[in-house]
Give the backbone structure.
Amino acid sequence: MSIGTSPGSLVSERLDRLFAELPTPGSPEYLTYLETAEAAALPAQVLVRAYRVLRAAGEEAAAEATLARLLDGSDPHGYLKVIRRLSKQQVPGNQNWHDAEDLFQAALLEITKVLSTPRGVLAEVAWVRFCQNCFEDAWRAMHGRRGERLRIEFAEPMKDDESDDLVFPVEQTTGESAPWHAGARQSDLPRIEKLIEKTIASMSDPLMRAVAADQFSDDPSPISSGRSGRGKPPLTEQLGASRFQISRALRNAKARLAGALLADDELKTDTAWLRQFIATN
C-alpha cells in the first residue's frame, strides 16, 4: 500500500476494475461469465452494480440472471453468509411461529424489494452493511420494532366437534380462487399469473415447485386432511411428504413469488397485502 492510500480506496479501485473487466452486461458472454466466474472475480458489490445498470437499461432477462446468482438460496459463493448467520442468531425463543429459514426468506424478499431503488446504492459499496439493514427491516416487519408482534397467538390445531380429529389451520384450503386475486387489480391478473407460472417453473426444489403449482392453482388440494369436493387426495398423500414439510415449502414458495411480484415495476402490488400473504400459512 502506498503512503496516503487508504484500504477503503484500494477496495473501491478493485471493485471498479472488476466491473470494468466484465463482458458487456446483457451480452451472451456476460451470461456465460455469470455462470462460470469464481466469487473472487464477481464480488457481491460488482453483481449489484451490474444488476442496477441492467435494470435501468431495461435488460430484464440479464438482470434476473444476475439477481439469481446474487441471491442463490444454496449460496455457493458466500454472498448470503451474513443473512444466514443473522437468521440463525435472531430467531426469537419460546415461539413456534417461524424458524431461521423463514427469517432468511423474509430478508431475501426485502433485498429484492430495495436493491433497484436509490437505497440499493449502499449495496454497491457495502454489501454486508446493506444485508444487515435489510435483515433488520425484515425482522421488524415480522415482529414489530420491539418484538411486540411476537405476542400474537400462534394458531394451534383445533378439535373438530363432530370427529374429535385435530384440524390444523394450514390444512384449510378452500380451492375457491387463486390466493393473489384478492390483492391485485383485475387488469393485472394476466401478467401476474404469467409471472407466477414462470417463477414456479424456475424453482429448483421439486417439493417447493410441486406445492406451489398445486396451491397457487385455481383448484388447490387440501394439505393433509379430508378431500376436496371433487375427491382430490391431500398433498401429503400425493407428494409423500409430511404436512410440516409441505407447510415450509409453501412459506418459502410464497416468499419467492412475492419477491417476483415486487421486482416487476409494471405491477402496482399492495406491499402490505404481500407481507400478510407471506406470513399466512
